[in-house]
Amino acid sequence: MNALLTVKDLRIAFPSRNGPVEVVRGVNFTLGRERLGIVGESGSGKSQTGRAILGLTPSPGLATAKQLEFDGIDLRQASPATWRSLRGARMSMVMQDPKFSLNPVMTIGRQILEALKFHGRESRAASKARAMAMLEAVQIRDPERVFRAYPHELSGGMGQRAMIAMMLVSEPDLLIADEPTSALDVTVQIEVLRILDNLVSERGMGLIFISHDLRLVSSFCDRVLVMYAGKVVEELRASDLAKAQHPYTQGLMNCLPKIEGGARPLPVLQRDAAWAT
Q1: Is the peptide bond before 58 cis (omega within 30 degrees of 0)?
Q2: Domains and CATH numbers, the chain
Q3: CA distances (Å), 229 to each of 7, 18, 37, 41, in order?
């Protein structure tokens, strides 16, 4: 498998009163034209890993790596011009909460068209047709209304769908999806996953799917990275998630509620200090 993305010894640190604190510690993985899931509890470093790949580590944080390469491009040495040519066109990220990702003073349609115009894809008419088609694809029933609407006029789930459409409209080579379906109902969630699956299988897109939903990851992704305290503690095929060897992964699986024969109360994950070292 040819690697679309290679990450070696990725570390992200933020300053504190007691010195730098590493929130991502030595993450290693490669990504081909496939679906890679990253799971773990809040604070495990999943989202920060995704942001660092796009060069979006918030200041004053510092991201370093021995290798961070996308399709032959060394992202550690990427110039501002290189980043502008990559973000939005070849690399995109669906953020977890659309309230903080969408521009509140621009209509949804203008934001989608701006992304296409910036990368010089098509005429305005063709770009609008592409945008409307993508809004329909994420199950927005009245795409014309949403196209003209401002973010505050949309519900949380509708805003999430608009955000997904905005990131997918340019058909990127790499998409990092941070909890992309958390605000969606089941029927829309299935449709969005179908779109992502088609982009991976038909266009050869690489997908990093960040999620808390172990069942969703096990059924949708090809491989899974399990993160704990900023480290990858286990990597395995998604179909083998039930056969996980690390006690943290096993604990997460055991905490999932079951319809039949479920334990009452749900088991509590017993943590070991050695997992974080």
Answers
A1: no
A2: 5-90+174-276 (3.40.50.300), 97-171 (no CATH)
A3: 18, 18, 17, 9
Are 229 and 215 contacting, i.e. CB atoms less than 8 angstroms apart?
A: no
Q: What is the CA radius of gyration of the chain?
A: 19
Strands 21-31 and 5-14: antiparallel
Q: How far is CA 32 from the centre of its chain?
A: 15
Q: What letter represents residue 221's amino acid?
A: C
pLDDT by residue (tens digit) across 10-40?
A: 999 999 999 999 999 999 999 999 999 999 9
Measured CA to CA in angstroms, residue 173 lies from 32, 88, 130, 202, 207 at distances of 10, 10, 18, 12, 8
For 114-136, what is each residue's pLDDT tens digit?
878 776 667 888 889 999 998 98
State pLDDT tens for residues 38-92: 999 888 999 999 999 999 999 999 999 999 999 999 999 999 999 988 988 899 9
pLDDT > 80? residue 7:
yes
Helices (H), the chain: 46-53, 80-86, 108-118, 124-137, 143-148, 156-168, 186-203, 214-220, 247-254
